[in-house]
């Protein structure tokens, strides 16, 4: 057991080469997950609402998007964005940006399904009543349906954030210096304590994700009380 | 965009063989891991339902830990770090096989079984408690009641979530490329770096994943249509 190797490199695992170099390690993991979930929320909201629309030219593109993205591995998507986007655009993109794009595109498909389920779970009387009071469909969605539906969806969003945090480890593949990459670097440098190093970062991921999961479980119980019933 | 497509390169000769091999390895590693995951997941679910405290604690810790940590790191842990965990003879025995493959199966199994255990537990919980009580009253032991009465019914209910878990498993198996298991994604990258035909190689492998996943969701819909009517309480 060589825990001193972990202790010596602990700061590197937490923030990478930060004050001197770019941010890395656990801090970069959390930052990337936060940015991606923010982007994925808005994209997912739009796609989810498109999926709910009755107009075919809104409904079908979103349906195809959701089915394709959910049908392929995230790793594949990351490789697509990283290797093939430059071929199309003619210029390379920084690793961090391309991996965040892949995370946003990937997670948005899952969030779209959450949005759809959340809106469908509201009693249909809500929409009918708002329409009857003279709101347009768009207004009814914005002022009546979404505020209620989104509140009920918060626990699912938190769960999505947890899986995104776990998925950021895949940024390792294209060389982003997040936690998994940092651990691999430490491992390659020291070569004598792989078990200790990987166990340490497993525990680091676990602490973040477990705290979030228990938080979402608490929210779920709380939300259940406020649900509108049909 | 000035990229000339050349599908012939990827869809013939050696590269086509690579893709076929990749699909075969993806299927093998997924099937093996699924088999073990269902067995371990069932065992975990039953252990938790016995209500025996140490069992409950163990299963809760197991599912929480493996569900809340990234699969990629788990794969690295088993691949690089398992040497210190297991006794030497066991490791030497494992090294005789394709160790990348073995580590991949272990990681995927441990990860997936945590999810499957929860599915199976909720399946068992959805069977009315009286079923267990009635079977016990008939003189069956707990294990017999589980094996002959509860589990056969529970499995019928959980087949759809189980199928979608296996789809996740197939997609997750792509992560095994990081430790050098020559599955589909690995082969696509290999072709990309040998022939610079990245577009074609990634398109073909993406379509294969997509085909598998659409097939699986079609299967779930069909199952729901035809069989869920017969399961009702």
Automatic annotation (TrEMBL), chain A:
Primary localization: membrane
TM region positions: 26-50, 62-85, 100-122, 197-215
Superkingdom of the organism of origin: Bacteria
Keywords: Amino-acid transport, Cell membrane, Membrane, Transmembrane, Transmembrane helix, Transport
Compartments reported by the entry: Cell inner membrane; Cell membrane
Nucleus is among the record's keywords: no
GO BP annotations listed: amino acid transport
UniProt keyword annotation of Cell membrane present: yes
GO CC list: ATP-binding cassette (ABC) transporter complex
Coiled-coil regions listed in the entry: none
InterPro entries the UniProt entry points to: AA_ABC_transptr_permease_3TM, ArtM/GltK/GlnP/TcyL/YhdX-like, MetI-like, MetI-like_sf
GO molecular function: transmembrane transporter activity
Membrane protein topology class: Multi-pass membrane protein
Occurrences of domain ABC transmembrane type-1 (ranges): 26-216
SUPFAM superfamilies from the UniProt entry: MetI-like
Function statement: Part of the ABC transporter complex GltIJKL involved in glutamate and aspartate uptake. Probably responsible for the translocation of the substrate across the membrane.
Assembly behavior: The complex is composed of two ATP-binding proteins (GltL), two transmembrane proteins (GltJ and GltK) and a solute-binding protein (GltI).
Family assignment from sequence similarity: Belongs to the binding-protein-dependent transport system permease family. HisMQ subfamily.
Protein name stated in the entry: Glutamate/aspartate import permease protein GltK
Species assigned in the record: Desulfovibrio psychrotolerans
TrEMBL record, chain B:
Pfam families linked to this entry: BPD_transp_1 (PF00528)
Matches recorded under Gene3D superfamilies: MetI-like
GO terms classed as biological process: amino acid transport
PROSITE patterns linked: ABC_TM1
GO molecular function: transmembrane transporter activity
Cellular compartments annotated: Cell inner membrane; Cell membrane
Annotated transmembrane regions: 20-46, 55-79, 99-117, 138-159, 201-220
Membrane protein topology class: Multi-pass membrane protein
CDD domains hit by this protein: TM_PBP2
Organism: Desulfovibrio psychrotolerans
Name of protein: ABC transporter permease
Every ABC transmembrane type-1 domain range: 23-220
Entry keyword annotation includes Metal-binding: no
NCBIfam families, A to Z: HEQRo_perm_3TM
Record keywords: Cell membrane, Membrane, Transmembrane, Transmembrane helix, Transport
């Amino acid at each position: 057991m060589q825990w001193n190797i972990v202790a010596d490199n602990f700061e590197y695992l937490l923030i990478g080469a930060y004050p001197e170099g770019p941010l890395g390690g656990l801090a970069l993991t959390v930052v990337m997950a936060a940015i991606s979930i923010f982007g994925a929320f808005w994209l997912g909201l739009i796609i989810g609402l498109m999926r709910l629309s009755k107009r075919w030219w809104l409904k079908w593109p979103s349906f195809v998007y959701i089915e394709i993205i959910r049908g392929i591995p995230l790793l594949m998507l990351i490789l697509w964005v990283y290797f093939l986007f430059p071929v199309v655009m003619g210029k390379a993109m920084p690793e961090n940006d391309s991996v965040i794009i892949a995370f946003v595109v990937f997670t948005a498909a899952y969030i779209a399904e959450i949005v759809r389920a959340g809106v469908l779970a509201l009693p249909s009387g809500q929409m009918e009543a708002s329409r009857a009071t003279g709101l347009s469909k768009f207004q009814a969605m914005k002022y009546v349906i979404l505020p209620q539906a989104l509140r009920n969806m918060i626990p699912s969003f938190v769960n999505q954030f947890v899986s995104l945090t776990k998925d950021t480890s895949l940024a390792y593949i294209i060389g982003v210096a997040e936690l998994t990459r940092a651990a691999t670097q430490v491992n390659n440098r020291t070569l004598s304590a792989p078990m200790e190093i990987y166990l340490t970062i497993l525990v680091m991921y676990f602490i973040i994700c477990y705290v979030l999961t228990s938080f979402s479980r608490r929210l779920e119980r709380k939300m259940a009380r406020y649900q509108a019933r049909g | 965009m000035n990229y000339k497509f050349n599908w012939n390169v990827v869809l013939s000769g050696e590269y086509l063989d690579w893709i076929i091999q990749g699909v075969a390895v993806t299927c093998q590693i997924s099937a093996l891991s699924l088999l073990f995951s269902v067995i371990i997941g069932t065992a975990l679910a039953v252990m938790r339902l016995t209500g025996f405290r140490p069992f409950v604690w163990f299963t809760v810790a197991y599912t929480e830990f493996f569900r809340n940590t990234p699969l990629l790191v788990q794969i690295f842990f088993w691949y690089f770090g398992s040497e210190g965990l297991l006794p030497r003879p066991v490791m030497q025995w494992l090294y005789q096989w394709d160790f990348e493959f073995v580590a991949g199966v272990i990681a995927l199994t441990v990860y997936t079984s945590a999810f499957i255990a929860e599915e199976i537990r909720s399946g068992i919980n959805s069977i009315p408690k009286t079923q267990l009580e009635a079977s016990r009253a008939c003189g069956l032991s707990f294990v017999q009641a589980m094996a002959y009465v509860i589990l056969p019914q529970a499995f019928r209910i959980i087949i759809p979530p189980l199928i979608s878990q296996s789809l996740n498993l197939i997609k997750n198996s792509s992560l095994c490329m990081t430790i050098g298991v020559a599955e589909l994604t690995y082969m696509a990258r290999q072709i990309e770096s040998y022939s610079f035909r990245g577009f074609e190689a990634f398109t073909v492998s993406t379509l294969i994943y997509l085909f598998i996943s659409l097939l699986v969701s079609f299967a779930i819909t069909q199952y729901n249509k035809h069989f869920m009517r017969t399961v009702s309480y």
